[in-house]
Design brief:
The protein is α+β, with helices and mostly antiparallel strands and 201 residues long. It contains 10 helices and 4 strands, in the order E-H-H-E-H-H-H-E-H-H-H-E-H-H. It has one domain: 2-Layer Sandwich (Alpha-Beta Plaits), CATH 3.30.70.141. The chain binds adenosine-5'-diphosphate and magnesium ion.
């Protein structure tokens, strides 16, 4: 197995993140953990790119539908449908509109347990229930209920790969191999080296 310090994950600042002028804040949150930015670009995605992106993982549709239904049930509210695939189909339509509505910033972050670390800092899908201290918990307040009432995607500022296998499929969807940089930064020695000799010269 590869060392966890070489793990990579895809992050996208969604159109609402750009509109809210949160690009710097979002990058800062990941950068200050020690994760390394190895690729970045601003683009206006097409609807096809977004549909392909979300359907890269064949299990995503069922999971996204089940997650939405469970959230309604937990709050004692009625979900818009009890069929997870039906819920997911309408989420895909909304996501295509949302994610292609303006520029986004796609990034690849590399470092220790990158996928898990980035998800932890990002917070859970629904900002209403995302923890304080996470990006989604601190900077936005959308909910399943508000999004579904208006037949739109939940506005939660960021996409972050949900698992290592998802990241491995998503990164090549957004970046060519030569757009991903290989380089060192000095603090990697402090984060990862087996011992911290040479501090005192
Ligand atoms: P995450 O982005 O946290 O990995 P998912 O992969 O489950 O979340 O869903 C992808 C995106 O689809 C979410 O970030 C959100 O913008 C949107 N979304 C998910 N579920 C719903 C829903 N039930 N209604 C509206 N939008 C949704
Ligand atoms: Mg996801």
């Amino acid at each position: 197995m590869a060392h966890p310090k070489t793990e990579r994950t895809l992050v996208i600042v969604k159109p609402d993140g750009i509109q809210r002028a949160l690009i710097g804040e979002i990058i800062k949150r990941y950068e200050r953990t020690g994760l390394k930015l190895v690729a970045i670009k601003m683009i206006i995605p097409t609807e096809e790119m977004i549909e392909e992106h979300y359907l890269l993982d064949p299990d995503w549709k069922k999971a996204v539908g089940e997650k939405a239904i469970a959230s309604y049930v937990k709050k004692g509210e009625k979900p818009p449908s009890s069929d997870p695939i039906e819920v997911a189909d309408s989420v895909v339509v909304s996501l295509k509109k949302y994610m292609s509505s303006g520029p986004v910033i796609a990034m690849v972050w590399e470092g220790g347990h990158a996928v898990e670390s980035v998800r932890k800092i990002t917070g859970s899908t629904e900002p209403r229930s995302a923890n304080v201290g996470t990006i989604r918990g601190d900077f936005v307040l959308d909910s399943y209920q508000m999004a579904d009432n208006d037949t739109r995607a939940i506005r939660n500022l960021i996409h972050a790969s949900g698992s290592v296998s998802e990241a491995e499929k998503e990164i090549p969807h957004w970046f060519k191999p030569n757009e991903i940089m290989k380089y060192r930064v000095p603090h990697e020695a402090t984060l990862y080296n087996a011992d911290m000799r040479d501090i005192l010269g």
